[in-house]
Amino acid sequence: MIKARKLRKRFGDLEAVKGIDLTVKPGEIYGFLGPNGAGKTTTIRMLTGSLKPTEGEVEVLGMNMRTHEIEIKRAIGVVPDEPKLYENLRGREYLEFIMNIYRVPRRETLKRLQELCEAFSVDYLNAFIGEYSHGMKQKLVVVSVLMRRPRVIFLDEPTVGLDARSAKILKLLLRKYADEGGSIFMTTHVLEVAERMCDRIGIINKGILIAEGTLEELRKLSKEGHENLEDLFLELTGQGEFDEIINAL
Ligand SMILES: Nc1ncnc2c1ncn2[C@@H]1O[C@H](COP(=O)(O)OP(=O)(O)O)[C@@H](O)[C@H]1O
Ligand SMILES: [Mg+2]
Prior knowledge:
By secondary structure, the chain is an alpha/beta fold. It has one domain: P-loop containing nucleotide triphosphate hydrolases (Rossmann fold, 3-Layer(aba) Sandwich), CATH 3.40.50.300. It contains 10 helices and 10 strands. It has helices at 40-47, 69-75, 91-102, 106-119, 134-146, 164-179, 191-197, 215-221, 229-236, 242-248, and strands spanning 2-11, 14-24, 29-33, 55-60, 63-64, 76-79, 152-156, 183-188, 200-205, 208-213. The structure holds adenosine-5'-diphosphate (ADP) and magnesium ion. Magnesium ion (MG) is lined by residues 40-41, 81, 156-157.
């Protein structure tokens, strides 16, 4: 469903992503986990066609991003970390706009839309998007993506800004979509989120995929025998020397 080969991105002197290979299968929720600045957003933007890689290939649903960018974008759903929305539209108008440009079957979609709005407590569609908080915008984008039922969904830090109830509903819905054969690629810097939501986890640090596997497989990787993902994560990303840091402060 998603394939990246030797994916690389340079911004001037900085190489933000240094040759990443990954595959996401049908039915899988893949968690892309890493500290701030690791290259998660840069990677997801290349996978979704909003940023051109310096090198490497992206394939989604068996199509190559270089030759089938429009077809891929029509078929996938993307929830970016900072949704760029039209502030002068009302939520309802934005959803209408999305339904029009994606040419979705209208009756079906309206029914799903209503259910999704109830599930996520989106009861502010008549207000202007400019008046929404970050979380409210994010929920609107989540609803606009899920109402289309894309087979592949990308989410960049989806739980940031969501209240506990909405985060839980999102988790259950993504699980259901994956169980029905869809694929989910999500980034997070929060270990608990990866631990609770994802079938397979890739750990990225400084632009390099340093470990990948199920939670079980990742635990076995720990040289120091760390059982919980948090200690393993800190060991792998070289952030484990807290005593030194705390002493120096
Ligand atoms: N458009 C850009 N121009 C220059 N540098 C960028 C750009 N986008 C990201 N970066 C840099 O690339 C690195 C990775 O950023 P990003 O992918 O946003 O990390 P993450 O999402 O994991 O926090 C950071 O050092 C960031 O400053
Ligand atoms: Mg990011």
